[in-house]
Structure formats: C-alpha cells, structure tokens
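FIELD: query
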Amino acid sequence: MGVPSYLRIRTTVSGSRPLNRRGESRGTILIYVAHRWHGWRRRIRMGPLTRFLMKTFHLEPGDLSNLTSLYFATFVMRAAAFAGVAVMQHVMYPDPKDAFWKGLLFAVYPLAEITTVGYFGALCDRMGRKRILVLAHLITAAAVFLFIPSIGPPTPDVLRPYLVAVFFAMFGIGAAAKVASTLAMVNDHANVENRAQLFAFFDLVTFGGLVGGFGAGFLALKASVAEAVVLAAGGLGVAASVVIVQFLVRETEFMPEPQRGTIELLRTVLGNRDIRRLLPVYVPVVALYGYVLSFTDHLIGTGGTAPLSSLLIIVASLGLPLGGSLAFSGRLSDRARLRRPFMALGLACFGGLSILFAAATAPSGSNLGLLVSEWPLIAILAAGAGTFPPAALAYLGDIVERAVSGTTFGIYSIIFGSGLIIGPILGGALTEAVGSLAFAVLALSFIGISGAGVAFIREPAKEPRRASPDPAGPPDGK
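FIELD: result
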C-alpha cells in the first residue's frame, strides 16, 4: 500500500520532488514513517482489550473512549429514570377500572417529547450535540426528584395527577433532548462497517437500563421499600450521569448548520421518501412497547402472590437472549449489508412473544406458572426479537444525510413518542372494553401493520453513500 492520500496532499503543496514510482516525495515518506511510528507507540500503550475492540468495531481510540462514556452515561440515566417510572406506574391509578385515565396520564410524557424533539434535533445540527446532551440529563434528574413531592402527603390528592402530569412533561422534554443528541453522536462515530453494531449497543444500554431500572423499582416496591426512597435513588443516579456526560463525553465532529432554521431542517428531513416509509414500521412497535410499559402490573400481576423466583426466571429468559441477540445480529447485519430481513425476523418473533404472553393473561393477572414452563420458547423468541432494533436504527442511519442527522433522529423520536401515546391510550380503552384480551388484540394488530410496512421499504445501498464521503461535513451543495 502507498502513503495515505491525506498525507500526500499535505506534502504536495510544499513542492517536494517525487522520489519513487508512486510519486511520493521525501517529505511525504518521512511524515508517513513518523505517522506509522506514532501509531505503533500508541498501540503499545493500549491494552489488548482496547486493540481488540478497535479492530472489531472499526474505531479509532478517541471514538472508542467517547462511545464507552456515552453508553455508560446512557445506561445509568435510563436505569435511574425508569426506576422512577416504575414507582409512578405503581402509584398512579392502580385500579384497573381507571386504565384509560392511567394511559392518558402516561401519554403526557411522549406528548411532551413529540412537541419538543424537532427543536432539540435542529439545535443539535446548529449548535452541537454535547450541550443538548447535558441539558437532557439535567432536566431528567430534576423531573425524577420532583416526582417525590407530587405523590407525598404535602400535595392534596385531588392535585396529584395534575402535578405528576407537569413533571411527566419535563421527563418527556429530557427524553427528546437525550434521544436526538445521543443518536446523532453515535451516528457521527459510525460508518458502513459498524453502524448496526454501534446502534445495537445503544439499544442494549437503553433497554438494559430501562429493564434493569424498571425491574429494580418494581422489585423494590414489592419488597415494601418506600416510594420516596426509590425516587430519591433514581434522582441521584440521573444526577451522577450528568457528571459523566459533562466531564467524560466530548463533542463529536460535525458540520454545523447555523443558517438553517428549525422548520427548514425538518422540511429537509421529512422530504426524504424513505424516512416517510418508516412511519408504519416504527409507530406500531413503539405503541405496543408503550402499552407494556404502562400496564406491566396487569400483564404479570402484582397481587403479592407471584413468587420472586418465577419473576426472575421470566425476566432472565427475556433479557439475556435479547441482549445477546442485539449485539450478534447487529454484527451480522453490518457484514451482510442488509437491514430488512433482520427487521422482519424481529417483528415475527416479537409477535410470537406477544401471543405467548396474551395466552397466559387472565383477568386476575398472568399465569406465571405457564410462562415459567415455557421459558425455553420465551428465550428463543426473545433472541429473534432482538434482531429488530439495531437493524431499524441502522437503516435510518444509512439513509440520513450527516448535515441533518440531529434533526433526523429528532424525527425518529417523534415517531417513538407517537407510539408511546397511541399504545397507552388505545390500550387503556381496550383494557376497559375487553379486559385481558386487549394485549392480544393490540399485539397482533400492531405487528401485522409493522410487518406490512417492512415489505414496502427499500434496502439501503450496500456501498457507502457518495453523498457523505466526509464524516465531518455535509454533501456539496447542501
């Protein structure tokens, strides 16, 4: 191999005469030798694990350390924040007869996310990612702490739902800023060889934090830990994540778009036909996720009779295969340069899981004994379901222009928030109308719509997009 092109360009300007058949000058060769020597010294200082990760995921040392800090901060924030959500889901409207009002209250969070995420996504493209990221963690920490007085004795019972709605709105604003900034930063580090894998790890820390935090809060409440104590612990966890992003996460390279307003950026993104085709794929899946998040009590039962060992078996048979599948399928998707087959497989297995849980759901709660006896099938279906998230996010990263990546992932958050509104409200109404059959009706309907949507999207180009040859800037003329 010859000297890298960027070194040849740098020394050609100096006017040195070529010394070999490749046209490389003495100055070019000396710089190249120094460059290689510096690279070897840097690799010697690295540990074997760092070198392995860099080679496996096609990353530079700075990219690896920045992504590691970003992922860790995301996990801490999600786990701590959703421990607080578990408390609010347990405390507010526990009676199944109030399912509609519970769904309506929890819809405030995604509604606030939808109304603000376009603005935050555009800010990421105009001002940078890190400022918005730090703001997201700060707002979320404040919301979790403020949940404490909203459910305590100082607040009259009649005012509690309204106060909780205000703080859920703060929670949604924090989520909007978090999703837009974090996904844009991950995409800034990504390329065609690692995009699905990097998004798989984002999904892994996001859903791992969500399940871990929500599950920890759920189990803490079953162990009779006070709601205020769980919320305080969650608030401290999110506050710790603020410190991590402030001091360990650095700004990524991007080309700012200060002259383009929010409306213009949104119009540019929504003008992409491939992004519009993703709407019927994403929204139903997220709607089903929103229903599960809002009605976990109803799906698995919280009457106090469910043994802890049964709950742990079900959670482990879901979580462990799902997490492993996220990482493994992301690598397969990158190597094959394919997204749609992995999305279709994930939807099919997600539908199978939904049918299995719906079959075990009764008016008094789920038949945990049936679910425990079917744990191998749950594990297989969970592993298959894990192929959807990394392929879906990587598909969006494949078709996005880097100049508007923050706005694009803001649109993704709008899609996500729309599903979180539809799921709890529609699910609450169906739960009141048909009882335990609501989950089966929603699951089969939503999975069918998403599966049909996958059939109409196009597979991205298998080669890197010529429109974005430089990761630090937009295409010419944009």
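FIELD: remark
The two ends are 34 Å apart (CA to CA).
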